[in-house]
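Protocol step 4 of 6: structure prediction from sequence.
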Amino acid sequence: MSEHDQARPLREASPPEPSEGETPEPQQAPSAPDTDKANKVNKVNKADEADDAHEVDKADKAEELEDRWRRALADLDNLRKRHARDRPRELEAERARVAAAWLPVLDNLELALSHAGADPGAIVQGVQAVRDQAVEVLRNLGYPRQDDTGVPFDPTLHEVVSVVDAPDTAPGTVVQVLRPGYGERDRQLRPAAVAVSRKQE
């Protein structure tokens, strides 16, 4: 070997090029462990992306719910303030309506008093008419008169003030109304004060 040959740097041997008509050998595919590892990495990345999207979605929903909650609180507060503002006006209107319903009764009482020197029988009839008018006003306001006798005692309508002997009636029957009641079972101004029949020994 000459000195010239010795001084020439050695080059890595490259694979021989295929000769004409020869099929090149295919490059070797990655091994199975490398493929599995790549698939696992992809799955982990996709799972991380899904978790991130889920967290963002949860945050958006939480923000939306909080916004709705705040709006509901604001609406409730506005409703409460409006009710507090309107209630006095409503009570005043109701008082005025009830007072106006009694004005005709007062007018008729004054008319009866103005005829005090007339026929006593006419005055009595006038007072009775005023009484009936007042009862009708109460009935229209939702408080009908309770003054029936011969009915079974009802603790939701009656208040017993005395017990009497009444052999011809069943025990616990209302035999006398000492003071009429006004109202119904679920809404009363007052119960009727009654006397009921005693149980016979």
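Step 5 (inspection) to follow. The CA atoms of residues 89 and 110 lie 31 Å apart.
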